[in-house]
Amino acid sequence: MHRNIVFQQDNVRAHTARYTQQFLEQSNVQVLPWPALSPDLNPIEHLWDYLHRRLDCEDHQPQNAEDLEHSLLHWNAIPRHFYRL
User: Fold this and answer.
1) Whether residue 18 sits in one domain with residue 50
2) Domain limits for position 32
3) Where is the Tc1-like transposase DDE domain (predicted)?
């Protein structure tokens, strides 16, 4: 259906399991080669780290999904270098 898509994943054990690899091959999913032990190469990892650190600084820690959404939506200022190409 989407022939030009390349799937990106890190080398987490569940992603490299034989069953997972076989499924991706049988499904003709093109996977981006990923160096071992290099999750820091994935740009989203830096954003997750930033968001986690911001949440740790909150006076009121989110207790549920609604609290978390409220915190994330009201920050207004995630530095551009986290999402700019």
Assistant:
1) no
2) 6-36
3) 4-68
